[in-house]
Amino acid sequence: MHSSYFGRFFLPTLLLAIFAGIYLCQPVSFALEAEQGPLYVGSLACKDCHPHEYGNFVSYAKKSHSFQSIERLRKGLSSEEIEQCYSCHTTGYGKPGGFVSLEKTPHLKNAGCEVCHGPGGEHSRSPDTGSIKLKLHKEDCEECHISDRVNAFRFKPLIHGGAH
Ligand code: HEC
Ligand code: HEC
Ligand code: HEC
Ligand code: HEC
Which of 2, 79, 145, 164 lies 20 to 30 A from 132 at CA? Predict the structure, then answer.
């Protein structure tokens, strides 16, 4: 009696719940985005449409593996101290849709494309030039790089430094 109930109803109900869940997740993230502005999606989401920039970035930019720098010094740091590293060494920490933790947001653990170009959620779904930041200024870098260093790499000619 019990097992036939299980076989006949439990599995279909479970599958229905899973599919409903998958379907519902999309509108939920749209709604969140409408409320908070574009969300961060991580560098991998840019790969298919911008393979050239992506390829150069992961091959040459230290940003693309900046979480490793935290890992390297992790021993001997308290968890509060480690959290202070996140604002520069990850993507969007403390901002809507940005890095939260290695467990929750592994796709944002490194400082990616979006630390310069801004959150790319909306742009990735309906790409055009208006939905993403192109022109960058010294101040965009100074959020993480102390201004002496920014001047030292002579911002203008080296604006592509650390990029692609
Ligand atoms: C589905 C494809 C697609 C995805 C995903 C995508 N882009 Fe784009 N991107 C485009 C297209 C198309 C353009 C417009 C190219 C043009 O008209 O010159 C563009 C333009 C840009 C520009 C130049 C904007 C300008 O004003 O000229 C930047 C910067 C950019 N993308 C960055 C990104 C980043 C960063 C990501 C990942 C977060 C990303 N893109 C994801 C398709 C995409
Ligand atoms: C969200 C923080 C953040 C922003 C914004 C940022 N950077 Fe960086 N950048 C980093 C971090 C972190 C590293 C070092 C990564 C490591 O080695 O772990 C780095 C590394 C670099 C390097 C070292 C060289 C290399 O091989 O990557 C250059 C050059 C650089 N960034 C240029 C820039 C420029 C130019 C801008 C502005 C257009 C900029 N960065 C904006 C965080 C940032
Ligand atoms: C205010 C932004 C900022 C914070 C906070 C920050 N970093 Fe960095 N870090 C950078 C930048 C920018 C660079 C690259 C410097 C350069 O090349 O000019 C860097 C470089 C490094 C490097 C050297 C990487 C290499 O290959 O030479 C290590 C290691 C590192 N950071 C670890 C940490 C750790 C651990 C923390 C937290 C305790 C931390 N950083 C906090 C911005 C920051
Ligand atoms: C350190 C900052 C930085 C990072 C990180 C970065 N970019 Fe850029 N990106 C730039 C700059 C600067 C330009 C040139 C802007 C201009 O023409 O004034 C640019 C231009 C672009 C363009 C326009 C095409 C072109 O070459 O003019 C695209 C597309 C683009 N980036 C995509 C990406 C993608 C995808 C990633 C990550 C894989 C990425 N960027 C990471 C700074 C950055």
Answer: 145
Residue with tokens 């203008």: 156
Contact by Cβ (8 Å): 109, 90 = yes
Is residue 144 within 8 A of residue 114, CB to CB? The reply is: no
Nearest-angstrom CA–CA distance, 87 and 36: 19
- Nearest atom of ligand 4 to the alpha carbon of 134: 15
Q: Atom 10 of ligand 1 has which residue's CA nearest to it?
A: 127
Confirm or reject: Cβ of 108 under 6 Å from ligand 1.
Answer: no
Considering only CA atoms, give the Rg of the chain: 20
Distance 102 CA to ligand 3 centre (A): 18
Q: Which of 126, 97, 131, 106 is nearest to 29 (CA)?
A: 97
Q: Which atom of ligand 4 lies at the shortest distance from residue 54's CA?
A: 38
Q: What does each of the 164 residues of the chain score in pLDDT, given as a tens digit?
A: 454 544 555 555 545 454 454 444 444 455 556 666 679 999 999 999 999 999 999 999 999 999 999 999 999 899 999 999 999 999 999 999 999 999 999 999 999 999 999 999 999 999 999 999 999 988 899 899 987 766 655 545 455 666 78
